[in-house]
Design brief:
three-stranded antiparallel sheet; about 90 residues; alpha+beta; 3 helices; flat; 3 strands; about 45% helix
Amino acid sequence: MSPSFFEIVQLSDGDYALRRIDDDSAPLVRISFSEEAREMMEDRDMNVAKAMIAAGIEAAGNIGHDLANEMDWDDDDSDAIDPHPSYTLH
């Protein structure tokens, strides 16, 4: 399978999208800001969209890692079960 390259583009309606460079089908991600949000960002909406997409990609990459960490491995629990119990014979 050949590697895919992605681009972030601004769509005709002002939304931002992440799409494959070689594919004109529906974008993988689409970000839409309200007019109020655009005013607060003062023309930095493209930078915010890039940061949001980068954070989403990072979060998706960490899902497997996070699932492994969700198991509640408490250090104190390791002492509760002695792998080599000692027995006293009478």
